[in-house]
Amino acid sequence: MAEGPLFAGSAMRRLRKREGLTQAAMAARLSISPSYLNLIERNQRPLTARVLVQLVDRFDFDSAALRENESIGGIDGLARRLSDERFADLGIDRDEVAEFLAAAPQAAAAFARMFDNAGDARAEADEPLQATRREIERWRNHFADLDNAAEALADELRISRADIGSALAERLRDKHQLSLRILPQEVMMTSVRRLDLHARQLQISEMLDPPARNFQVAMQVAQLEQREAIENLAAAGRFTDDAARQLFQRHLISYFAAALVMPYSRFLRACEATGYDLQVLMRRFGVSLEQLAHRLTTLQRVGQRGLPFFMARVDRAGQFSKRFTGASGTSILEGSGTCPLWIPHSAFERAGQYCRQLVHLPEAGAAPASWLTIARTVEGSFFDGVTRFAIVLGLEARLAGNLALSRGLSLDEANAQLIGPGCASCHIQNCRQRSLPPRGAKLYFEQLSHTDAPFQFG
């Protein structure tokens, strides 16, 4: 996916004022006309490569300042925040979000910081999880240095589907003098992986299936070989709680493991060649659906982007145990619960089958509203049948036409199921499935008639 034009009017204006220059004086130093500089500062012209080079040469300018809005997730990150139920009545669309970010990026960053720090009462109990998720989404779940390191290691090991397990075991033996042992459940008990430095062994439970076993070994490789890089990323995170920092480090370890098993370039080529066929990709790379879904949210390498999926793991009660927005910009994952009309709930009734649903969020605000969502149940790899979740993947409907799993499904918005962010936050009228009125809404009661919807509200 091609990179868009770079509009940096606010950064240019701040630089000029810092240097104490008029537009005419700065334009002369950049070898452009004052009128052209004026257009750049008003975001009516993008910043060209030639002007950027001049800025760096003449003003010792840090080009990272031109991407300052990435710290809040760009337009998608700001749109996601503005789609909160507290702003639902304002009707803020995506164009307004883009204008706000372009015209006043520092004000937008201040709003984002205030929004993130405010939280709400529901978030207090799991604040480390919320803080970790905010940091992941700040990066759009793409960590370029880890991806590059994992891909280089995969190339060095010549990892392929057929020998990934043996290649990883060989790496442990040759570089770290560790042998790999698969031990019975009565020895490992509830542990899935154990590093025994005295015996120089990485011990793995026999209860893990092959994809989970390989992934655990890859995670151990990440801890041994990428410890410094992972700790540096975590140290630079915006954490006030050590538990959140450790959760973030655990995410980065899993991220590297996935990138090692599914190296970026090879994985993206396979995605595009197969139409993101989930079953084919699982077989080709020897991974589980959950591992694959995680990886699909990370494909944001500059100049080599994949489709912007979101991913969630949902339990039978509709609670999120994992959710990654990636670069999708979706607002579906922002509530504390899920809409009972959404596909993961019916997926539990069709265990092991792929379920597809086109959904429309009338209260999406500035975020995209129409999505193709795909769900399938998975069971815990440790003790089959004890734990069961639904894995959900989503892609904006306008991008989903060539997906293997969209074949035969109409992507016309007229056929979409209306869903909300969970009953307590949803203002969709006349929903027969509603179990709660929206929080703070004024209820109305008709004395002479009664509708088939459980609540009427303003």
Q: Main sheet, how many strands, which sense, barrel?
A: 6 strands, mixed
Sum up the overall morphology in one term. globular
Mean pLDDT across every amino acid position: 87
Outline the low-pLDDT stretches.
120-125
How many strand units? 13
Radius of gyration: 25 Å
Q: Give the proportion of residues in helices.
A: 40-55%
The secondary-structure class comes to alpha+beta
| Continuous helix count | 18
| Span of the ends, CA to CA | 43 Å
- Strand line-up across the major sheet: 7-6-10-9-8-11
Task: Give a short synopsis of this structure.
The chain has helices at residues 9-19, 23-30, 34-41, 49-59, 74-82, 94-103, 105-118, 127-138, 144-157, 164-176, 185-188, 210-225, 227-235, 242-261, 264-274, 278-285, 289-296, 343-347; strands spanning 179-183, 193-196, 201-205, 300-301, 304-305, 310-314, 320-324, 355-360, 370-379, 388-396, 417-418, 443-444, 456-457.
Name the features.
alpha+beta, 434 Repressor (Amino-terminal Domain), Beta-Lactamase, 6-stranded mixed β-sheet, 13 strands, transcription regulation
